[in-house]
Amino acid sequence: MGDTVISETQITYITTSDEETISLGQRLGALLSEGDVVALVGELGSGKTWFTKGLALGLGVSPDTIVTSPSFTLVNEYKGRYTFYHMDFYRLENLPEVLSAGLEEYLHDSGVVALEWADRWPEILPDKRVMVKFLIIDDRRREITLSGYDPRALEIIEDLEEEGTD
To answer: Which phi and psi angles does 122 have, rounded to 5°?
Structure first.
């Protein structure tokens, strides 16, 4: 048997304000369907929660709904086109803690999941995830790279790229 080659695709955006980060998240959110997982990676203050506010808008969550990071609650749930679960692994210390909290079940359930600090336990992430990495360039600018290799993730990224060229 030969080696399996997994092809990853990625696209990078530079945002220059919180509003642009929200807008990019909103564009992605509009493309998501039930069962999709968005895995967010980046240091504190890099824009993960702003991006998630945009995802919520794109998923049809009311603009009047306040979307906050679930650092202490672990999961915030919002109603939109699909149920939107916003999760945060930041305060969890180890994989058994993640598993005992039942968070892994959300990754394989209905609804759409956005998971902050997804790089802490990548072994529980589904293959179909869209990875979103945030890099702070300076006080205002962020480099946001979306990547994936599963057919569903590739479809989402390609649709976002095509939508951006209209």
So the answer is: -65, -20
What distance lies between CA 82 and its chain's CA centroid?
Answer: 15
The residues spanned by each domain of the chain are 22-164
Please name the helix (run of DSSP H) or strand (run of DSSP E) that holds residue 32, with its range, or none: none
Label the pairing between strands 37-41 and 112-116: parallel
Q: Which of 135, 136, 101 is nearest to 121 (CA)?
A: 101
E strand map for the chain:
9-15, 37-41, 75-79, 83-88, 112-116, 130-136, 142-148
Q: Report the distance separating Cα 147 and Cα 8, nearest Å.
A: 7
The architecture CATH gives domain 22-164: 3-Layer(aba) Sandwich (3.40)
Contact 32, 114 (CB under 8 A): no
Single pTM value for the model: 0.86
Separation between Cα atoms, residue 129 and residue 166, nearest integer Å: 25
Q: How many CB atoms lie within 10 A of CB 12?
A: 11
Q: Over the stretch 24-83, which tens digit does the pLDDT of each residue have?
A: 999 999 999 999 999 999 998 899 999 999 999 999 999 988 887 766 667 888 999 999
